[in-house]
Amino acid sequence: MRRLSLYAFLICAAISLQASIDGTVVNRSTNKPQPGVTVTLVKPGQQGMQTIGTTVSDAAGKFVFEKDQPGGGPQLLQATYNGVNYNKLMTPNIATSNVELDIFDATKSPDVARVAQHMLLVEPSTSSIGVSENFVIQNDSTSTYSNPAVGSVRFYLPPEANGQVKVQVQGPQGMPLPRAAERTQIEGVYKVDYPIKPGETQFEVDYALPVGPPFTLRGQVVNVKGMPNAGPLRLIAPAGVTMTGSDLQSVGTEPKTQASIYNVAATGAFSAEIAGTGSLRGPETTQPDQSDSPPVTEGQPQIYGHLYWLLGLALAILAVGLVYLYTASPVRAPYANK
Questions:
Q1: DSSP 229
Q2: Is residue 312 part of a domain?
Q3: Which residue, 178, 183, 133, is CA-closest to 159?
């Protein structure tokens, strides 16, 4: 019996090289399994996302993909619920059985989230003035804020930017992703639609303004109506750059970078006179990646290098086991001496 157990173990080990992925969709707003959720298994690669399969969670919230994608590398579970996408990264070192894929109920009420930080970095150079406006949105509830009509954050884009703006968003435990900025009915005010899931979500809005000595930055403090704000907008000027204006209150200097920090006292429009040049991020040495997704390097687990050897061994063991069963069979024994 011990030999048979060993044979069965080795055969199962060889077959499991193409393992299944199974688990449960859990609604963390109710802490209960969620049925009827569309779940997709995708594999990121150099040519984008490849869909491996799609299923729907059953009455108990269960889902299963019979075979994952051979060849190693990460895979991604994606669930769509109430119009919001939720992801779980599956790396080769993560168990593929009894996976929990978390989702949340969605709400259109912005009061479940708050602006924890709001900063605007100004980096003048001899050719242009780079502006980077950053929002840190904190959601301490158990619901996802999603309201495409209102947006998740709003910002003012000066007319000198000619409508050219780049937005990157990073959700809880996610990667920075590009997002479109949409015009609102208010002149110069744009919105960004991105679901605010429980946890911390960061928005970075980048644009460039023409240089001019002296230069007056004219901006506006705009917020999503109904979303609490933890504090005032803060302007950050690198070392070598000075900012003055009746709407600014000096907070001090950051010790490490020597950047000057100002609070914007105004609750609407404000202006600041800028002089000097400087940058916190330093000169660009390489061209930034313009793709929508970060590069993914694919690699196979070391076991795949011995795939054919293991399969051959398993088949050989299976053959030996069958011969053993045949010769030791009590059914065949009465005829063995004939």
A1: B
A2: yes
A3: 183
pLDDT tens column, 89-130: 888 888 889 999 999 999 999 999 999 999 999 999 988 999
Domain holding 44: CATH number? 2.60.40.1120
Amino acid at 157: L
87, 129: one domain: no
Q: 145-164: per-residue pLDDT in tens?
A: 999 999 999 999 999 999 99
| Residue the block writes with tokens 């609490």 | 228
Dihedral pair phi/psi, residue 83, rounded to 5°:
80, 5
CB contact burial 285-319 (16+ within 10 A = b; e otherwise): eeeeeeeeeeeeeeeeeeeeeeeeeeeeebeebee
- Domain end residue (candidates: 59, 86, 103): 103
Q: State how far the Cα of 103 lies from the Cα of 89, in Å rounded to an integer.
A: 14
Domain boundary (103, 130, 147) is at: 103
Sheet holding 38-45, edge to edge: 48-56, 38-45, 75-81, 84-90
Structural domain including 248 reads 110-276
How many degrees, rounded to 5, is the angle at CA 136 between CA 130 and CA 139? 160
Q: How far apart are CA 225 and CA 189, in angstroms?
A: 13
Global pTM value = 0.75
Q: Which tokens go with 264?
A: 């914007």
Same domain for 89 and 1?
no
Distance CA 28, CA 198 (A): 10
